[in-house]
Amino acid sequence: MILFCNGDSWTQGDSPAQTVNWDSSEYLDWYSIPSSFGMYHVATTSQQYKFYDSEVWPKTLGRLLKFNTVNAGRLGDDNQGIVHRSIYLLEKYLSMTTSNELFVVIGWSSCLREPIFEFDSKNKIKLSQVRPSNYKKDTLPTPMMYDDKFALSVYTLQSYLENKKIKFLFFNAFDTFDYENSRFKTLIKPEYWLNKDPKENHFFNYLKNKYNILHIGDKSENMIQGHPTDKAHIEWGQYLEKYIRKNYEFN
């Protein structure tokens, strides 16, 4: 079996919550990171293993399930990018294996992240993201717009995975999804979500409830600068493993 994981920094890892090691390389025969994290619009084959040594949840989950594991998580990514990258990579894997040999777990980012184009330090245009809710809040349109866009992104990947007959599990990393107020709420199928609840901010809420964390920015052994530590990732991977074994069957 191949475990395919995707998401943002709560999937890939983020410094200082995870230790950066630019000298790390792919040394496990069952755990891999795609070139450029599977970002098909990036014209490079570079590998980035800076968090390869870290015990992020995809590594923990893959080890516990004893599945070959692909971690395509990319820090700072928006949900539209997660969808595009997932489909692109899964099409590649489907050309090499069958759908019943794949299991997908997606840790969705915040629906408030918007993809934008900007200039980098070399004056080249790059695809990035911005959180418009962080400033000029009074000028923003109704929050429903963000839930609608997220619902359509979820529906796109949900429909693709259903069509390909690939088993999958969705969860929200740190933000809630108010899908019931979206105009596209009927497209979202709760049975594909962790605890059958698309609204919950699953990963953060798990840590918040277990360790009485009041704010996502609070520093502790489980959270640093708004990101879960290796300890928290390990616990989350263990939690997911128990849920998956209880709710899914594999050949």
Question: How would you describe the overall organization of this protein?
Answer:
By secondary structure, the chain is α/β, with parallel strands linked by helices. It is 31% helix and 16% strand. The protein is built from 6 helices and 9 strands. The protein has helices spanning 9-12, 57-65, 79-94, 144-163, 202-211, 230-247; strands at residues 2-7, 31-32, 68-71, 102-108, 114-119, 125-130, 167-172, 223-224, 227-228. It has a 5-stranded parallel sheet with strand order 2-3-1-4-7, sandwiched between helices. A hairpin with a 5-residue loop joins strand 5 and strand 6. Helix 2 (57-65) packs across helix 6 (230-247) and helix 3 runs parallel beside helix 4 (144-163). The longest helix has 20 residues, at 144-163. The chain is globular. The model has no long low-confidence stretch (mean pLDDT 90).
